[in-house]
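User: I'll paste a sequence; please echo it back and then give the predicted structure.

Assistant: Echoing your sequence first, then the prediction.
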Amino acid sequence: MQLLNEEVKNQIKEIFNKEVKNPVKVILFTRAFNCETCQYAEQLLKEVHEAVPEKLQIEIVSTADPEGQEKAKQYGLDPDRVPAFVILDKDGKDRGIHYIGLPAGLEFSTFINGVILASVDEIPVDDRVKEMVNNITQPLDVRVFVTTSCGYCPQAAITAYQFAVLSPNVVANVYDAQENPDLSQKYQVVGVPKIVITKQGSDEPVVEFVGAQPPEYFLSYLIQASQKLEKGGLEGAGGSGLIITP
C-alpha cells in the first residue's frame, strides 16, 4: 500500500522544483527487527525519492550491522534509535539536520523543510541575526521533542534546523517523543514541543524551554546555553540546566 497518494506526490514535485535549490542526500538508519516504524520510514523515503529522483539521493543503512552502527555514530546518532534520518547537502556535508522517528502526520512538513534547508547555499537573514549567531561558540545539541499531531511542533523543529544551517556549532536532533519514551521521561517531556539544549556528546541539559518560540527568542536560548558552557556552567553543578517556561 502506498503511503503517499498522487496528489501529495504532485505537491512534493511542485515544492521541490520551486524550493530545493540543489540536490540533497538523505541517509536513513534502520533495522529489520525491534523497530515498529522502520518499514514505514523506508517506504516513505522511497516514495518521496520516486517523486523527485533528480532532487533527492537516498541511502538506507542497517544498524544491525557493525558498519551501520559505526556510520550512525559518525553523525552523532545512537545506533539503537531508529528510524533516524540525516540530511546532507550537495557536497555530502552534514548540516546538522536530523530526525529520529517516523516523520508522519504534521511532522512530514518538518522533514520536507529539512530537505529544503539542506539544499540552500545560504539562508537570507539580516546582519543583526548573523552577528548574534556568531555568539554561539560552543558545540550545541538542540533536541526538539515533537509528536505527529502537534500543530506547533513543526515550527519549533524547523527553527532549530535553520539555526543548525546558520551555525557550524549547532546540530538539531528532532525526536518523536512517543517513539523515544526513555528520553521523554529523562527530560520530563509532558508538553510538546519541548527543546532541550545540551553540549554535543553530553546528555546533560544546559537550557530547556517549552513551546514554539519566535526565532529571536529561540536564538537567545542558544546563546544562553553557549555562554553557560563557555563559563563552565555544568562543571560541579550536577548537570542542572536552566529551565525556561514562557
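The radius of gyration is 17 Å. The CA atoms of residues 37 and 217 lie 34 Å apart.
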